[in-house]
Structures
1.
Amino acid sequence: MDGTSWNYSDKVKEHFFHPKNILDIDEKEYNADGVGYVGSPACGDMMKIFIKVKDDRIAEMKWQTFGCASAIGSTSMLSVMVTRDGGMKLDDAWKITPEMIIDELGGLPANKIHCSVLGDKALRLAIKDYLIKTGQEQRIPHDDKSRIICECLNISEDDIRMEILEGVKDFKTLQERTKIGTVCGNCIDTAKTLVDFYVGKYYTDEVYKGKK
Amino acid sequence: MIYLDNSATTPLHPEVKEAIINSLDLYGNPSSAHTSGRQMRAMIEHSRSEIASFLHCDPDEIIFTAGASEANNTVLKSAISCCAFCNDTRGHIITTNIEHPSVLNTLACLEQQNIQISRIKVKDNGIVDPADIEAAIRPDTMMISVMYVNNEIGTIQPVKAIAEIAKKHNIPMHTDAVQAIGKIPIDLQDLPVDFLSMSGHKIYAPKGIGVLYKRRTSKNICPLITGGHQEKSMRAGTENTLGIIALGEAIRQCRIEMDENKARISFLRERLEHGIMKNLDHVSINGDPKQRVYNISNMSFKNIEGESILLRLDMHGIAVSTGSACSTGSLEPSYVITALTKDPAIAHSSIRFSLGRETNETDIDQTVKAVVETVTFLRKMSPIV
């Protein structure tokens, strides 16, 4: 329990103590256009995001979480990011990354980054849900931007990057969680290099300040 | 600030503070033969006697250390270094799965050196069954180490029963009694442990001072720190004289206040738990509600995350601790709470309130109010129903 865990920026604290856009009425009553749900109590983090769409922009984003200060702060921030200035276009909202949220928050302690990665995932699921419900499946972007590292198990570089963001810091743990490289084993060296790269990127400094 | 984290550490007792202030100008080395050295020697021996009489043992059996972690390390690491020296081939240590990290991680280190470790699981109430300990004994078992009181949930282990089993099998027994001192009367004439660790800063003395009790008749220990002849060569290094003086005074105060603290703090904890549970649903107490020390209450607030509760209580000026993963900086919640329940939502939502001699009724009433408000707020935003 190192002291840095509590070094939240003022912006994180503001969003944690006064979270914006919480869904505080019944889900049915709210009647969202799209709903996304990720996480499980086992990981100590769950996130549910509700969106309302108008003119292909996010008119409203409401959310609920079982999460720590960092999860609450980053999701509250996300809800502000996607709804300000008349709402973000769905295509743009789809591309939001944890780094963008952390940037807006003015950084997060490195060991809290894994708590902040659920918001954007849940948002993409909510957008997907909306696109399916409105018969626009063809607009769902394919997650093929990231190259496949483990051919046998179809694990991409982006999957590895997300695992690192969620707290994995060595290849062994990555393998325990994803089973990467357990079939033919050809990808192990590449995967190890990527783990080193992303661990260096996200955890070298005590506080990851985002890409400046 | 309302400080309900007395199991993490305690403020100085005013009398301890005074004893330290009165000793600040005394700098003699207790090993020196001149007057100032002899004066300091007398003061630390006075502390030693104070502690010995509190524990009902001989002053010669008290070794001052830099804390309980050092005491635990000394005892457990002795298990192997002395065995190598004595050419003893036994290589097995029994402990529980909810010991303090200074025991568990030290044993994990010994495991790397081929010592086998049995970590006996506690029951759902956080208490180990002595029969399970006995069943794990092997011909090569060289130590049993079981904590007296768990630091997270406050459960009291059947240390006496386990020590009697250890004695019957002629196995050295160690107990980490950090959280028991000052709360539970300890009589080493009646409790057949060979080693006992304690710490100063949990009983209103400063950080950096602790004690290792070593029964005179028990096997020798290998010092962790070698050097001069201090502490009968069992712990080298010039004594932490101010710490020792402070600890002696803290123990003297424990003796004076023990009964009164017990009555008053038990009542306050009851008030805290009753107040919270009357106003909130889905709150559970972690650990046996009866067989635990009177100052610790570890509660789980289902469906909300511990760190969020902790930080919001902090905003109200209330200091508590949590076993949630987010507070430990890892992905796993507290291993102690996880040992009691399979429900991760409970483990992630645990909060430890640990009361102390300065806690009063107003503190408790304000805490109940803040907890109810915080939990209600956080539950409203929880997707789990």
2.
Amino acid sequence: MTTKEITIQTEPFVVNIGPVHPSTHGVFRMRTTLDGEVVVNMEPVFGYLHRGIEKLAEERTYGGCVPLTDRLDYLASMSNNMAYCLAVEKLAGIPVPERAEYIRVIMAELQRIASHLIAVGSFLNDCGAFMTPIVYMIREREKILDLFDMVCGQRLTYNYMRVGGVSQDIPEEFIPALKKFLKEMPGWINEYDRLLKQNEILLARSKGVGVLTKDLAINISASGPLLRGSGVEWDIRRADPYSIYDRFKFDIPTGTAGDCYDRYRVKVEEMRQSLRILEQALEGLPAGEVRSEVPHLVRPPAGEAYGHIEAPRGDLGFYLVSDGSIAPYRFHVRAPTLINLTALNDMMRGWKVADLIIIFGSIDICLAEVDR
Amino acid sequence: MTTALSVSKIAKQLGKKFPEAVIESGADSLLLKAESLLAVAEYLNTAPDLAFDYLNHVTATDYYDYFEVVYYLVSMKHNHGLVLKVRCYDRENPTLPSVVSLWRGADFQEREIYDLLGISFEGHPNLRRIVLWEGFEGHPLRKEFL
């Protein structure tokens, strides 16, 4: 019997994942070049959701831009409101009453928990734990949305903060509801950990996958859980404190390996730290005004200002230029998720298609903010 | 707190090394000559007492007479910050050196500036439109675009 040698000709081929794909969390296209099942190259393509918010803002008054910021990262509208208001207050030198500062911190930290719940839930969804974890987490997020509903009547685009404070004081029923939430939430986070922290399938799929080294993370200007997952202890709340964050005690969780598992753990730990801040803020909440005297049309002096905060997805900043009129001359958003995508190709190269979905999920992006 | 470095002090330090690089040292920012941007940026990145390893963001503004590009630099090691500015007077074909070789974080941001304001960055590895499609006419963030 003779053996015949067969040679199979192989060549890399291009596959478009997205723009409409359940794992892309929005309209995002990954133009991947595959060699069999292995990713050789990946080029991110976005812009499908570009609405020209930076241009639109140039036609609006400073107060009128707040609803636009809601539509950037719609999973963390409160944080966007806060970052924008900080930038305008810096530009125009507007003071914020003490009570409003505390209310802002409470809202921003609640928003961080709500946003991380969705981030962790959809990451686990991508890992193959289909629907169960995310429904658990949506259950808890719902309680935060109820709290937001109480203070501003909205569940997604809050438009709650104003230049110089917040739009209205918190209602009577808010504090008891928040206290109840703070009492229950640690138990829920422990429940997720019991189910998932040492889950063998999760460990096998996310440990060591999609590593972003410390040096590369700094070089690509990464921020938020992506940067901290790579072992850099950098949090704007500590590094460049804004509002009243210098008064609170909290830790900055960091990872060691910079893989998908570390990024997931950082987010879970950050939820615990947010609960700590919430407890301290609730204790210190003073009485008083919630909004300083601000004219209806703010006219900041000509100049520029940059205000940034630690949003759930990273370092969110607003760069504003004023020409002395009622509308910003230039309105630029430092979108953390756009910048975090810079190293996506480096993280994905060499991994299989199934891992690519997990790596993308672990970065946690919001396309409305990437495209603006 | 990220301390803003004394701009006049840095301007003096840079003046010794790059005699003609600094045009103006403002209250909180340094205005540089476009030609010397890359050399100065490299010095700021590597000098051990400055060590600006993190580029917070890059953006640009259209002031009719010129385009101004701002670089917000941060040193994670020393936790201090500095703002660099560069101006571009050519409206027809504005060009600046790219800093992607030093900070890769500028990659998408420079593409965005190219897309929305039409400033080309020399030395950028992949300078294409990023949020608008190829073939789109004009640059929306320019003031004459309505």
